Amino acid sequence: MHDIKFQCKDCNEKDCTKSEANLLRYKPSWASVAGYDVCVAWIGEGAVSNDKSVMRMSEPPVDGKNCTLQVNHPFKASLRDPFWVLFRPWDSAVNGWEDFPHELEFARVVKCKPVEIIKKNAKSYWVVIEVLESMEFSKISDRFAKCSGPIQPYPTQRMSRIDWNDLIYFNANLEGDVTAWFICQKQGKQMAMLLYGTSGWHEDFFFAGNRPLSAEEFKCLEKDFL
Ligand SMILES: [Zn+2]
Question: 72 C-alpha vs ligand 1 centroid, how far in Å?
């Protein structure tokens, strides 16, 4: 069923199905899109043959262009169906947005059409994709209709907040193993949640949608992530 799959690094099972089950299970009811996050690296020109270090793409992907992805556990996909992934520019792909908040502007939610697998080994596949849609975070609320539903739970340790233009990034993690993050958007006096991400055991996901937040809900987030 999946053309791209790996022996599971979390439980070591050859045909583990937990990550794709979790992708559906953790998708919030307000999210329009579910996809994989940091297990996907966008490869820069001329780097395909180098297994040791990844030469990452620094410019955001453009609609209609072909790009190469290096995908790793727990990524799974079929070559028949489009899939969604995040594009994070170089520094935030490796180190997170805390130290590189300006890269929130250049990050994208991307719908990919798989074209071909050009190389694989036990750890990674290199897949050429066509970019069907490359969406700035600030445009997510224009693209998706407003939806309601519960906000996902998050760890209450090592919590941080970063404001960048109209976006606010909240991050929380438990011993560095279980991470949850949210990106909200200031829309005049209103607030909306646009993205939620989670990583941990059998998880490396992001979800995107347009979930307006009441003043009360936003106050709770602000208080927790102070
Ligand atoms: Zn597993």
Answer: 13
